[in-house]
Amino acid sequence: MDIVSGRGAVVFDNTEFRVVNSRTQQEAYVFAPATLSNIYYGFLAVNSRFNAFGDGVAQLGRSLDVDANTNGQVVIRDSAINEGFNTAKPWADAVISNRPFAGNTGSVDDNDEIQRNLNDTNYNRMWEYNNRGVGSKVVAEAKK
């Protein structure tokens, strides 16, 4: 089950995403973007709440690969993610193509700054930044 899917460029601000799968305990996904690989913007969730009811089987998203030109793009930032999400594998393999999820977490440059190319089509374009809560391993980077 995908809650939000499609090719749109959408900002979700102060939105609650709720995954209720307590009866089936099957995987559920919040986002399934089908962003074209040459488009830089897909889904952005900011200042939002991600609540899943179940035993950590919900995932934040997966790419909806409807054709060879698709590489979903989603960013979740400054949001709260509860314990119902799978922290070991928050992003799933693509639906339809079954392309494995491969993230580009970035590399450190000479100034100890993390460099990320959010539009590198060799990787899935699914990111978390500055989130909080048991369901998120991503926290704010230390200020220098």
UniProtKB/TrEMBL annotation:
Its EC number is 3.1.2.-. One of its GO terms (molecular function) is hydrolase activity. It comes from the Bacteria. It is an enzyme of class 3 (hydrolase). Keywords: Hydrolase. This is Acyl-CoA thioester hydrolase ybgC. The gene is ybhC_2.
